[in-house]
Design goal:
elongated; mainly beta; 3 helices; disordered N terminus
């Protein structure tokens, strides 16, 4: 029965996101416990203890306590000790709650820990973890950068800096700011075919609850366009590796993205197009501590993006903008399996959301400086899971 109750408590607890602040349970015992008879205790002898504070860190499994100690004065009285009394009881597993007795008051502490576990409300698990939205954000950023290259009529060498702000909306649990660079080259193979390749590198820090996770993304991209008169097809494919570091733990995740656009020039300046974005994430097991780790299944995220693009030349300047709707066609943001003390295995499932619509928009101002074309732009994407803002500056040298 004890294991059943503990298992139910843990199941409720671990449906919440696994971050360090949620793993610390506390209990305060304000009773006084005599350790010696004051009438016969010698001077300096431990006479009693009071105000015991227990702290159980589920992340490490470590149980610690602190207490106030009272010292006999040898004359029938006692004084509060002038030192701190702290104790490390080592690793305690959930099923050992009832049997572990550091003091006679432990029964009340164990019951309190059970109640704390049971009282933790599970959070909505239909959310995108920070590793998923990071992969989607990288795919979006590269896609928007390359689209500008493909819509130019000449081959080029190009370089771009990007400032990105990414926020998880479903739980409000994570956000990041990053600075990255992307550079590449492309050229015409024929009158109808254009091919190119590039590399993207960035660094960011996710703030998730009370944890800060450093992320570095390394991504390669290949892209191409087939154009016939007013009709075109743009294809963009990227593969990348993301390195995550939290405290002393490191983890790597790889994945890829594919983007396809079919467009038609309605007028000289206005283009109608339909796009499709696909992001695949292949995460590895993440170890938080010796007693706790997470394994996430592979994830796929697909949207369809109909919209329009507008471009206008004014002297040496070019103003362009795009507006696209976004519809979530497929999402199996991977189930998460959590392991605690190699004893409990909890599967956290994520379902589909009803609201699948989103928005993509961007604006760019370019200036032709002869051999160099400079561009300043802003892109914004919003879905049910995240908002993604990019401020970018690029230089392109045509050939």
């Amino acid at each position: 029965m004890k294991n059943l109750i503990t298992g139910i408590c843990l199941t409720a607890f671990f449906t919440a996101p696994a971050f360090a602040s949620s793993f610390v349970l506390n209990y305060h015992d304000n009773n006084c416990y005599p350790e010696a008879d004051l009438a016969t205790a010698g001077i300096g002898e431990l006479a009693g203890i009071s105000d015991i504070n227990y702290t159980w860190n589920l992340l490490s499994g470590k149980l610690t306590s602190s207490q106030t100690e009272w010292i006999s004065d040898g004359m029938g009285g006692q004084n509060k000790a002038g030192y701190e009394a702290n104790f490390d009881w080592g690793i305690l597993t959930p099923e050992e709650l009832d049997d572990f007795l550091p003091y006679e008051d432990w029964t009340a502490a164990a019951e309190s820990f059970k109640n704390q576990l049971l009282g933790l409300e599970p959070k909505n698990t239909n959310y995108s973890k920070f590793d998923v939205i990071n992969a989607i954000s990288v795919n979006n950023m590269i896609n928007n950068s390359v689209q500008n290259r493909l819509n130019s009529s000449t081959g080029s060498f190009w370089f771009q800096t990007v400032y990105n702000n990414l926020k998880e909306l479903k739980t409000g649990g994570s956000s990041s700011n990053s600075v990255g660079v992307v550079f590449g080259a492309d050229g015409k193979i024929s009158d109808s075919l254009k091919l190119g390749a590039g590399v993207y590198i960035d660094g960011s820090e996710f703030s998730v609850d009370d944890s800060d996770i450093d992320v570095t993304n390394y991504t390669g991209v290949v892209y191409g366009q087939y154009r016939k008169n007013a009709f075109y097809i743009n294809g963009i494919f990227n593969y990348g590796v993301s390195e995550y570091k939290e405290l002393n733990q490191e983890n790597k995740i790889d994945g890829y993205g594919a983007n396809l656009y079919v467009g038609y020039n309605l007028t000289r300046n206005l283009v109608a197009e339909v796009g499709a974005h696909y992001t695949h994430l292949n995460p590895y097991e993440y170890k938080y501590s010796d007693t706790y780790r997470i394994k996430t299944e592979q994830s796929d995220y697909v949207t369809i993006n109909p919209g329009v693009r507008y471009s206008k030349n004014i002297s040496i300047f070019n103003l362009s903008a795009n507006l696209n709707a976004s519809y979530l066609v497929y999402n199996d943001i991977g189930d998460r399996t959590e392991y605690l003390f190699d004893i409990y295995q909890i599967n956290v499932l994520r379902g589909e959301e009803e609201n699948k619509f989103g928005l993509e928009a961007g604006i760019n101002l370019g200036v032709n400086l002869g051999v160099v074309y400079a561009n300043f732009g802003y892109d914004y994407i919003r879905s049910i899971y995240y908002s993604d803002s990019n401020i970018k500056f690029s230089l392109r040298s045509s050939f």
